[in-house]
Amino acid sequence: MKGQVLDYSVQANNGLISGADGNRYTFTGAEWRDDVAPLRGMSVDFEVEGERALAIYRAVGAGGSIIPGSKNKIAAGLLAIFLGGLGIHKFYLGYTGPGLVYLLTNTIGWVITIFLLGVPNMILGVIALIEGIIYLTKTDEDFEQTYVVGRKPWF
């Protein structure tokens, strides 16, 4: 049967799928048959046994990037490469703390870092460039899982 993941809790290791027949089915993480964790809104194909979903597979072409409100890896990567020194890519991904580190170091921080020959600013620029390249080289599913769902703020 086809359906869509409504919810999945890593801590509880269970979730809920809305089937194409209009019914809802519970499942455990052990029934998930993909290397990318289930995400809300992901299309799936599964077998039904009573009110339980079994042998759940991610439907072809159902990457995490289809989720409404998700972040675009290309936008994040380009922001990191071209405006990374200001931390715009961090704000885009919702990481306010790391974004402020970039922004303050490369604006107000110049007054202090000028005595350090701007080395901290250059280091943050290189880190932003590396992050941009990492964002662009990850698959959509890996990017979504790592930076949107997993909320990993650095690298």
From TrEMBL:
It is a multi-pass membrane protein. Keywords: Membrane, Transmembrane, Transmembrane helix. Pfam families: TM2. InterPro entries: TM2 (IPR007829). The keyword Transmembrane applies. It is found in: Membrane. Its main location: membrane. This is TM2 domain-containing protein. It comes from Kineobactrum sediminis. The lineage of its organism: Bacteria, Pseudomonadati, Pseudomonadota, Gammaproteobacteria, Cellvibrionales.
